[in-house]
Amino acid sequence: MEGNSFNTVTLSACTFGCGMLVGYVFAKWLREQESESKMNSQASYKNSSDEEMFSDFAQGDQKLVLVVQNGLKMGKGKMAAQCAHASVMAYQHCVVNSPQTLKKWLRSGQRKVVVKVESEEALMELAVKARKAGLIVSLVCDAGRTQIPSGSRTVLAVGPGQESLIDKITGHLKLL
């Protein structure tokens, strides 16, 4: 009986030790993979040519303008959520349709400005002007689950894009 007990303890200790060793080796490998991945992403960013970097700055600053439809009298939290929706929509649009614009905006600090209009008509006029100017336009329509009616147009995102072009469309609006 004592022999079986000794064998069981020995086998358990060996199994435990092997498990610890495998875990240690796997954790070390995983850390190396993460480190290598970070170095590769930093290298690809740093390997941009000086000429490319200069052309980004020569074109001026980049920004995203969020235009809130203030006539809806949304609460602060609702307004913030709608602005977040518009920002994400604009980002997703850039990822798919305008990766160079996205790259420039990310390099210039991802500036965002929030302004207001007092009516849906004013919001839609801005959307039409921005589209005609070739800017990225994202319009948030509310689902109507909380404070405002379903389908209400709440926030218009103009950009990201070149600041001077966006200012021609939204520069006259008051900050929220």
From TrEMBL:
Listed EC numbers: 3.1.1.29
Domain of life of the organism encoding this protein: Eukaryota
EC primary class: hydrolase
Database matches in Gene3D superfamilies: Bit1
Record carries keyword Calcium: no
Keywords linked to the UniProt accession: Hydrolase, Membrane, Transmembrane, Transmembrane helix
Catalytic activity, reaction form: an N-acyl-L-alpha-aminoacyl-tRNA + H2O = an N-acyl-L-amino acid + a tRNA + H(+)
UniProt xrefs under Pfam families: PTH2
Keyword hit for Cytoplasm: no
GO cellular component: cytosol
Membrane-spanning intervals of the chain: 6-27
One MF annotation (Gene Ontology) recorded for this entry: peptidyl-tRNA hydrolase activity
Family: Belongs to the PTH2 family.
Protein name (database record): peptidyl-tRNA hydrolase
Source organism per UniProt: Caerostris extrusa
Name of the gene: PTRH2
